[in-house]
Write a structure and sequence with these properties.
The chain is an alpha/beta fold and about 350 residues long. It is built from ten helices and 19 strands. The chain has a ten-stranded mixed β-sheet with strand order 10-12-11-13-14-19-18-17-15-16, sandwiched between helices.
Length: about 350
């Protein structure tokens, strides 16, 4: 394999070997602690413009299968692993991870000390980085990073371009899902719970959403800074209180912003399938799947009507919000990712109960 170089904006660098596309990428570097699910990670739109470091050392060993994509996109700007396996043993695989990345112009780098790199991100925080040719000097790499603007248009790039439908047999409810970079398994779970789903682009107007006469509105996950997604914040201000609303991840943050709260960027974010979260309403602890860089500021919730329903036991950040009067609920984590594996399915049931109560 061809030698490649990873340079961080603080001047630290790592030498590794190329897989995937042999292109340069400048992006924010983050880490994920999942032991499996790399296909779901590379097809999750929430990773747009990010270089993902996998803390689990062996990646690629079961290949890529046609049934396991979370979207039609390959979202990360780069993929970083310790040991890449290009000979998958899974009988279901249809291509290798390297082939998938190469087809979508995403560079990968392997053979670096990911333990050291993850510790660096954890201790010093997420930073921007470049994957580039081995002959690029550290100074040149840092200069390229500084000369490249930070993007703020991720949601507009990953949201669907037009309305589409996901129907199910014998539906109980009709749900409009605002697509900010939605994972397909969310739609599958809503269908499994008896909901016909109409997926709309992120910039759909509130009056157009209400004209569909939904029983409830879902706000999806997605990439980037929630404060950049002003169209959805404006729409939620008009919808909250009129229809039951349920949000996941970025949707959770957008609901908070629309209600008058604020968000802030975490030092290194939460990414992985092993985060403990406490449900303050029941006292139970859930093992959750997470993927986010921002969190809701608990102090800013005063006067919004929102109550904290869940907290992260690793750092006490807000993981869930409820407003019973407005039939609103949201969570920072991903219940559709089967953490636990079924610890969090009740959240969909709560959304159904809110829609049923609103109909009555």
């Amino acid at each position: 394999m061809k030698k490649r170089k990873l340079i961080l904006e603080d001047g630290s660098e790592y030498i590794g070997e190329s897989f995937g596309a042999e292109t340069d990428a400048i992006c924010e570097i983050v880490f994920n602690t999942s032991m499996a699910g790399y296909q779901e990670i590379v097809s999750d739109p929430s990773y747009t413009d990010q270089a993902v470091v996998m803390s689990y050392p062996l990646i690629g060993n079961y290949g890529i299968t046609d049934e396991d994509y979370e979207s039609k996109l390959v979202a990360p700007a780069a993929f970083i692993v310790r040991d890449y396996n290009d000979q998958p043993s899974n009988f279901r695989y249809t291509k290798t991870l390297s082939e998938l990345l190469e087809d979508n112009h995403v560079p990968g780098i392997s053979g670096i000390d990911t333990r050291k790199l993850v510790r660096s991100i954890r201790d010093l925080g997420s930073r921007r980085a470049i994957i580039t040719d081995i002959n690029v000097t550290t100074w040149e790499g840092v200069q390229q990073i500084h000369d490249t603007p930070v993007p703020h248009d991720q949601v507009s790039r990953v949201s669907c371009r037009k309305k589409w439908y996901a129907r199910t047999a014998n539906p109980r409810f009709n749900v409009v899902a605002i697509d900010c970079g939605m994972k397909l398994n969310i739609v599958r779970e809503l269908n499994a719970f008896g909901c016909n789903v109409t997926v709309v682009p992120f910039d759909t107007r509130a009056e157009d959403i209400l004209s569909i006469h939904p029983d409830g509105v879902f706000v999806s996950n997605g990439p980037g800074d929630p404060e950049d997604v002003k169209p959805v914040i404006g729409v939620l201000k008009q919808i909250i209180g009129k229809k039951p609303v349920f949000g996941i991840c970025l949707g959770h943050q957008l609901i908070a912003l629309a209600s008058g709260a604020s968000t802030y960027k975490l030092k290194f974010g939460h990414r992985g399938g092993n985060h403990p979260v406490k449900n303050l309403l029941t006292g139970k602890i859930e093992i959750t799947s997470q993927n986010h860089s921002y969190a809701v500021d608990e102090k800013s919730l005063a006067g919004t009507g929102l109550k904290v329903s869940h907290i992260n036991l690793l750092d006490n950040t807000v993981e869930g919000l409820v407003d019973d009067e407005k039939k609103l609920c949201s969570v920072q984590y991903h219940p559709e990712s089967a953490p636990g594996p079924q610890d969090s399915y009740y959240l969909f049931e709560n959304f159904l109960k809110n829609m049923e109560a609103a109909i009555k």
